Amino acid sequence: MRVRIQPVALGLVVAAVVPYIALKVVWLTGASIGVQDDTALAELHSTRMVVGNNLTILLELMAVGLALALSSGWGRRVPAWIMLSLGAGATGLLAPILLGLPIGSVLQLVVQGEVRTGGMEHLRPWVFAVVYGGFGLMAIGIVVLAARYAAVRWSHVLRRAPHPPPVWVGVAGGLGLVPFGAAMLWWGVSGPGSTGPQAMDAVVQRTTLVVTGLLAVAGLLAPLLPGISGRAPRLAWLAVWVGCTTAALQAPTHVLLADGGHPSRAMLLIGVLTISGSSIYGLLLLRRHLAHDRLHAA
């Protein structure tokens, strides 16, 4: 019996979102489910956490909306910039979790015999499963739906690898992706210390930092190696997309919030360069590619 993959993928997204939103709603009502001590309970009901929980509920609902659009015929009639914006947000936030969490969890389980992470000491173990397991399921579902959607709507873009960029675009991409990627790799390998993202000391969290850094570097290099990207154009576009969106979305959290929430001027500069440089690089690569397509079609 042939299984229709789109309903299954959509079901994964919904299955991931429902318990996560339920947990956040319960916390917003003042309940203490999943919390182990009074210190964490006080923090849970602070203004910062209340705003954060409301924001994450909104993001989860947007992810469901994206999944519905990706799996429905009407989704192909939605303006491309809306779908690309939502897809970029989902990719940038979820890619390091999807790729780094399984590897990091196995490594930490082998090394330390548990998968508890920084910031989760005051919460029940099942909260980790609901939150990060849900992120993983959501990412898998959206990846499946997005791959099928892009293959139908943008097959003409994906059939040829991205063209090598002009020098100034490459410089912008290098400024945006290399310092950020190097910082992520350094903090992932050596630990965040006092200058890196705080509460990211666990093996599983440091693995996601390494993955984030590798994705940023891969996004920069893919168009610069035409001999390799030409043999696998879709893989090259995937590297550019994931690398640029990951850098643009992870920079505010991992760079701007370094040094315990008080980033130095150097960290602020890296953050600004990352967001602007990765965006310029990705968007202009796509624009240049589409211009070549129109020229050949004329």
UniProtKB/TrEMBL annotation:
User: Has the keyword Transmembrane been applied to this entry?
Assistant: yes
User: Where does the sequence pass through the membrane?
Assistant: 7-30, 50-70, 82-106, 126-147, 167-189, 209-228, 235-254, 266-286
Tell me the domain of life: Bacteria
Q: Which UniProt keywords apply?
A: Membrane, Transmembrane, Transmembrane helix
Give the protein name, as stated in the record: DUF998 domain-containing protein
